[in-house]
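Kindly go through the following sequence and its backbone structure tokens. Advise at your convenience whether the structure tokens fit the sequence:

___
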Amino acid sequence: MVLGINPALSSAVDNDFSLTHAGLAQEFYALARAGDVFLGISTSGNAKNVAYTASVAAALGCAVIALTGEGGGRLAQQADVVLRGPAQTTADIQNWHILLYHTLCSMLEDAFWEMRVRTCLPA
């Protein structure tokens, strides 16, 4: 689920919660459950909205995976797993993020597809 794209929820959060950069964290708090995974993406690793959301995720018992640049920033310190784009420029880091994100998706699809096939096939 992508945070920040539901206009009704974003509007409700913005109306009821005035802390700057905390809208995504509040939305995550409303939607997440213990055991969920938060994937935070920040080129610098210092995006306040992503860091706040990572804090909420940890408090809820959710795993935190971070995609950051080489330095990692604040987000790297908060994450259970950090995937750093080994680059210095924003464009290069974001190109690494595309590759890393699609690799994660492929790995998840493989794992879930394999699990589904194993549970559906007769022994």
User: Anything to note?
Assistant: The two ends are 35 Å apart (CA to CA). Strands lie at 37-41, 63-69, 81-85. The mean pLDDT is 88.
